[in-house]
Structures
1.
Amino acid sequence: MVHEMRRWKQRLEQTECEAILRQATSGVLALIDGEGTYAVPLSYVYQDHCLYFHCAKSGHKLELLQEHPSVSFCVIDQDHVVPDEYTTYFRSVIVFGEMDVLKDKQEKELALSALAHKYAPKHSMDQIHAYLSKHGEPCLILRLRISHMSGKEAKELREKQVEQGS
Ligand SMILES: Cc1cc2nc3c(=O)[nH]c(=O)nc-3n(C[C@H](O)[C@H](O)[C@H](O)COP(=O)(O)OP(=O)(O)OC[C@H]3O[C@@H](n4cnc5c(N)ncnc54)[C@H](O)[C@@H]3O)c2cc1C
């Protein structure tokens, strides 16, 4: 279910959300845990309207995903505290969708390479592949198929953008 943003003037465009997803280096994955919740920070890469994550083959989040594949993932782009105004000039994106574990070997390799390239952009693909062929095997790749996303920024940032005409 998509909830409309109350303060819609602070809403980011989809292209702005995507730019943040490409640039940020981590976010927090929110999962349902029985009657409660579990929020866990993770690195990720954004590609083809999906987010990809790598993780160990067992653990708390994997157990929960098997029961409840619907998740959200929040990325904070900016959190600039302004003490004189008792506020923060923030910008963030929340992604919603279903998560699954990649089974296909080729898809896994592509996602893992994309992750490695994001976090080590100066390394050649040869370097990355050599590293992954040695160390990449024991991990799983999770895919979050995005159903929708929303982005929001502090009204002060939005006003500044309007002033600058962007
Ligand atoms: C910026 C950042 C990036 C990360 N990137 C990755 C990544 O790409 N892949 C990856 O697998 N992991 C990553 N981690 C570690 C990740 O947060 C988890 O610790 C890890 O994935 C294990 O999760 P799990 O649910 O299997 O925990 P388990 O090992 O099953 O942990 C059990 C319990 O330990 C506690 N716990 C687990 N993780 C944390 C945590 N981070 N902080 C506080 N308590 C915790 C919780 O209470 C949890 O219920 C990252 C962490 C940070 C901060």
Note: Residues 8-103+140-156 form a domain with the Pnp Oxidase; Chain A fold (CATH 2.30.110.10).
2.
Amino acid sequence: MKATVDFVRERFDYFNRLCFEGKLEPVPLRVSNARTYLGVCRYRKRRRLLGGYEMYGFSICISARFDLPEAEIEDTVIHEMIHYYIWRNGIKDTSAHGKVFRSMMDEINRTHGRHITVSHRSSPQLREQAVDTRRKPHVIALITFTDGRTGIKVLPCIRKSVKMYRNGVMASGRVSRISFYETDEPWFNRFPCSSALNVIYRDTQDVFPYLEGATPLTSL
Ligand SMILES: [Zn+2]
């Protein structure tokens, strides 16, 4: 089957009662046509007055692109619900799929006979060939052009380079929005990292799942 909003909504309510004691607050649920993930829990991050960040503006999005067994879509929904539970409640974890995530996942798998994994792309169709998995810090720029296209650029973690890139790109007059994130997610290793004034056109929907846990750079 392919995911539908109605299915996701119904399953969210069901698993909320079954696995989360009904504690999850309602959250916008969507489906997308994404190719590179099965599900994602989105949020925004803002600085707190007393230091640190808080997450807000949550939504869960499930890809409807693939014809998958119902159980696999359900496992994806629960995976995103675990993220939502942890982030919504401000629970500290060691990483996006850290100790807390894994212990909740293991508990649900054990108690309810699920097969949830820490991957957002568990389907064979989505498995990509082995890539560089080293954790190296990068600055990721997400760019929206005035014609509606979007793109990504991987920059070295050097403030001056990031600033120069931003100024150069904005000066082109073709860019309506640019935002920066710092992350060591290995998925970004596949892109060339440089300060050159270029961009890789890519749907930002495909990129968001890999910015989980990234730090937005609000001031440069
Ligand atoms: Zn995840």
Note: The longest strand covers residues 53-63.
